[in-house]
Amino acid sequence: SKARQAQSRLKMLEKLEPITPPAEAARHVFTFPAPEELSPPILALEGVSVGYGGAPVLRGMTLRIDQDDRIALLGRNGEGKSTLSKLLAGKLEASELAPSVAALIEHDRFEVRRAAVWALRRLDDAGTWPAMRQRLQELVELLEGRHDPDVDPSRREGVEIANRWLVKEASQLIQTLAILGDDELWPMCQGIVSAKVRYVDQLPVMDNTVRRTATWALGWMPADHPQRGSVARMLTQRLDDESEQNPEDERVRALAAISLGRMGAAAHVETLEAYAENAMYFENLAWSARWALERITGEPMEPVPPRQRTPILFLTPVQ
Fold first, then answer.
1. Residue 277: strand, helix, or coil
2. In sequence order, what are the beta bridge partners of 48?
3. Dihedrals phi, psi of 50, to nearest 5 degrees
4. pTM score above 0.70
5. Which of 288, 233, 290, 297 minimizes the C-alpha distance to 264?
6. Cα–Cα distance between 161 and 166 in angstroms, integer?
7. Which pairing describes strands 43-50 and 203-204: parallel, antiparallel, or unpaired?
């Protein structure tokens, strides 16, 4: 009977479909780009207290984390390990954390200020918006003052290097307040964008990177805002500015098209079509106009052939 059972099982095995072994080519290989090198520290806390509405769980923390640090959290239950982890990950409620983070906007170190603005965007607490607006206004005034023609020429190179950091900080603040929907940001952006770049002693009064960001930000203006129509007309003027002596910055024009598309500015479709259909124009401008038309009309457009297209500031991550 055992021989009969063995024969029966062999017949059953013969009827089974063979399983194909996984092919070597089916393996997925993951590669990670090298991260941007950051200036130390990655994170810094000075005198921070945090809790859950009552007495602070952790009080007066001063902490610095650098790129090569390896950290382990040890302690008994209830001593704040999870609270510290949530604090570092930005996962505590805004009411518990936002005031402490907002205070870091005025920190001496640029990377700390930049990390604080990123955290405030995640926390999304309207109570911190005035502090961010005030810092933005200070930066705009500072940038304009640093381009003053009376600046000592021997100091100009150092001033320009400092400006690069201030420009990045101002642009990040504009982006954050726009995404969060701060209504008091729009007049500031209108003023920055409408004042076309003026040159004093071959230096721009306002860096075009800040104007590009402000142009992009206006596309986030709410649909019920009373100034929305006039802003759309101003963006169309920037898009259409091809004056010979002092034409508008090409990326400001491209981002004006993007903002018109995000606003659904149907009244300005004809202007957008003129730039979308003419391959003679700056490639980013044609691409942006087509993107805007797709947003407004819902009809797909043929993409611009990618030759040397430069990624447009802020478009891809928050499209």
1. coil
2. 61
3. -150, 145
4. no
5. 297
6. 9
7. unpaired
In terms of Cα–Cα distance, which of 283, 316, 284, 289 is closest to 301? 289
Cα–Cα distance, 72 to 92 (Å, whole number): 20
Amino acid at 157: E
Residue 175 and residue 171: Cα distance in Å, rounded? 6
Q: How far apart are CA 286 and CA 308, in angstroms?
A: 13
Of 218, 247, 250, 217, nearest in space to 234 by CA: 218
pLDDT of 19: 72
pLDDT at 132: 94
Looking at residue 215, its amino acid is: T
44, 109 contact by CB (below 8 A): yes
- Check residue 11 and give its pLDDT: 83
Chunk the chain into consecutive blocks of 10 residues (it has 319) and report each block's average pLDDT, rounded to whole numbers. 81 78 62 73 75 70 82 85 81 67 85 88 86 91 62 50 78 94 92 65 59 92 91 92 78 91 92 78 77 89 58 44
Q: Give, in order, the Cα–Cα distances in Å from 254 to each of 25, 235, 238, 292.
A: 42, 10, 9, 10
